[in-house]
Amino acid sequence: MKTLLTWVVVLAVLGAGGYFGWTWWQKQLGQAQAQAAPIPTAKVERQTIELTVEIAGDLEPVDVLEVKSEVSAKIKKLHVELGQQVKQKAVLAELDNTELLTEKSQIQIEIEGANLEMKKAEEDLVRDERLYERQLIPERDVAERRNARDLAANRLDRARKRMQTLEDRLAKTTITAPMNGIILEMPVVEGQVVVAAASVNSGTLLMKLANLDQLLIKTHVNQVDVARLAEGMSVQFTVDSIPGADMTGKVFRIAPTATVKNNIKGFQVEIRIAQPDPRLRPGMTADVVIPISKASDVLAVPLSAVFNEPGDQKVVYVAGAGEGAPPEKRPVEVGLSNIDWVEIKSGLRENEVVLLARPPSAQGG
Fold first, then answer.
1. Where does 193-243 show beta strands of DSSP type E?
2. Residues carrying CATH 2.40.30.170, the chain
3. pTM
């Protein structure tokens, strides 16, 4: 029993020793590999650094008008097709005016009858006024004739006003283009009954008309980038469907309040396009680049060469002058930066070599 206990103790000691030995060996091996692995470097060189805001947006017309009818009727004929270019006042559609023409005939008969009645009332009044002057009839009879003449005149006036209203409604059965543009939408067909628009949000939509001579890009810019933008800034953009075409515009409007799009809070920004390419169409996606600032021919290092230290201090590690020489930790003053490069205002000279990762001796420091 004593011998068995002795062997158990010996095996436990050997196992513990083996574990700690293995751990120490792995640590030494890792340090050796870390020391042996070369740290990538880069030279301090002159660069032109541009800070830009890059976003995507959708093309939309500046002017889009909804075409609706002011009278309720059946569509008799459509004179345009989807995508067709039209000029202002061009006929877009005709509505069935059969009932209105019938009503017009009835009113015309009323007007003719009222005219005859008015003529007779005038003649009767003139006759009775002469008789009254000769004291052949009482003044009461003249007053009655005058009243009859006024009633006839009133009926004639009402009939004429009804005719004027009807002719206005008849004119509105011919739908014309309110401006030059292209037919963007046309959700109706011939024979369909349309409802008159009594307000902006009511009535049947006949067509949507857009002026493609003026286009804009609507984008959604995050809270960080929007602070760098200002109205009037120049913009460059491309469209995948028109390869090789570099187009320009200007920031026209920045929304005063934030909105949420795709779960990201940001601000709607409108960009007006200068001299739109005729191949551009509403709904296309534009890749927009807005230059914010630029530093030309300045000393620069890759972004990964600059490290943060306490107190907002920026440092780099300059490669040692000789083989095996340790790197020098050096504070630097930085300027403009983008996702690739950082401007070095002071602390480095051109062609010096900097490390792109902290050396092992500085890990954790």
1. 193-194, 205-222, 234-239
2. 54-60+212-293
3. 0.64
